Amino acid sequence: MAKDKYALDSCALLALIYKEDGFNFVKSIFKQAAEGDVEISMNKLNLYEAYYDILRSRGANQAEAVYGMVLKSPVQIVDGISDPVFRQGAQLKTKYRMSLADSILLGQALASDASVITSDHHEFDSVDKNEDIRFTWIR
């Protein structure tokens, strides 16, 4: 039986770090991944967004600590953009006028048949209604 796959959005990682609504769900997915029951991936651009947010709000030491934690976690960091992600992301960015990082996240989810873990209704509600992309909403 295939494992469930998840593509992690920066806001979901930040919910875990800042203990915002939905952090228990993200923590549970991390635990399931550590046990080998599910797979989690995160594009480095989305990790960059989280790093930037923490750097700006809490400083370099905290940003580095979180970055190190993610690198040691069961999250598979995708350091690059494959051709399918490149093409699908660009098509979605054109259609929905979203950020580069969000379009890459969605392209990665499509290419790997993963569900997007996010809380970003503002960016993704219209995509959820109109595209064949699975979303796992944390709040």
Describe this structure in words.
α5 crosses α6 (100-112). With 139 residues, the protein is an alpha/beta fold. The chain is built from 7 helices and 5 strands. The protein has one domain (4-137): Rossmann fold. The protein starts with a strand and ends with a strand.
- Derived from helix and strand composition plus strand pairing, the structural class reads alpha/beta
User: Termini separation (Å)?
Assistant: 28 Å
Record field, number of beta strands: 5
Question: Uncertain regions: pLDDT < 50 for 5+ in a row?
Answer: none
Task: Provide key terms for this protein.
139 residues, 5-stranded parallel sheet, 5 strands, 62% helix, globular
How would you summarize the topology of this molecule?
Layout: E1 4-8, H1 10-18, H2 23-34, E2 38-43, H3 44-58, H4 60-72, E3 75-78, H5 83-96, H6 100-112, E4 115-118, H7 121-130, E5 135-137
Parallel strand pairs: 1-2, 1-4, 2-3, 4-5
Helix pairs in contact: 1-2, 1-3, 3-4, 5-6
